[in-house]
Design goal:
alpha+beta, 70 residues
Length: 70
């Protein structure tokens, strides 16, 4: 049940990234609630460090700062 919810959130976030930043992110299913965001080969967000899933605005800001929209 939770897995489906996380998958939907990830897919929704991927659509927003595509719409606002112009590229299609790669989604990979993790294990046990793993949620990481990588840009340019670097982890820019890790749920294991923050203990929460970020809101979409934060993800977009992090990707922009990492230069992922260029």
């Amino acid at each position: 049940r939770h897995v489906a919810g996380y998958a939907q959130r990830a897919a929704s976030l991927a659509e927003r990234i595509q719409s606002e930043l112009g590229f299609t992110p790669t989604l990979e299913q993790g294990a046990k609630g793993v949620f990481q965001i990588q840009a340019n080969g670097q982890i820019i967000y890790s749920k294991s460090e923050t203990r929460r899933i970020p809101d979409p605005g934060l993800v977009l800001d992090l990707l922009r700062r990492a230069g992922a929209d260029t």
